[in-house]
UniProtKB/TrEMBL annotation:
Domain Transglutaminase-like: 91-149
Name listed for the protein in its UniProt record: Transglutaminase-like superfamily protein
Pfam families: Transglut_core (PF01841)
Organism: Rhizobium leguminosarum bv. trifolii WSM2297
Record-annotated membrane-spanning stretches: none
Amino acid sequence: MEGVARWIPHTAMTNPGRHANAIAGLPTEIGALIQIIQGVLVHSDWFKEYGLDETSLNSTARTTLPIAERLDDVFRRDSRPLNVKRSADKRSVGTCRYYALMLCSLLRCRGVPARVRCGFAAYFSEGWEDHWVCEYWDSGAEEWCLCDPQIDQMLRQRNQISFDPAKVPRQSFLSAGEAWLECRRSKAAPGSFGHGNTIGLWFVKINVVRDHYVLNGRETSSWDRWREAPPPVRAVGSIESELLDVLAASPEQPLVEIAPDW
């Protein structure tokens, strides 16, 4: 496990703090933890599919809080233990990053190296959609395994997903760096990667930086405000492409601070 132990200690975002005791008694099996997470969270983009009123969403639904504060919200909505599945209207509202963060937190509480990854999933639409997942170290196989705790029964049926969310196939999710290098090598079309109507190499760049940051304990950053970037800056220059090539090939390297240009 040499080299991967750096992903066992909590960051400020994954530390459950005052809720550590509530987590201590939970199962250790990955699938069971995923089901628990699905029973306390609901994704803001899928309100209608869960039978919820979209007009009830507030502006903080996409605000990424530390897990300790997220669990505050979970228990404020329903005070029962975490392993009790809530109805959708009683769950805490978040995004894919929250599902990944929570699984990462639960695994680290058990001494399992785990980390959040930023990239693109192929199982939500025809192209590669901006997405966050959790990656944990399988000590038996001595390899990193991808998990997507957001994939519940509704998503499995709606998107005809057949794989186990605890073992996401590598061909179904590309880290941001992998996506960048595929585009640079002309093996993939930049226009197939993005978030909604924001697609192309510029958005892939956003995720390359965010994935590099998260692997250095920075699960959130000013790059999350990419929607504020005006059209003139939504491009990638040749000089920054060279740096992005390096970060894409080795996102785990020590943090390189990069300030957004907007």
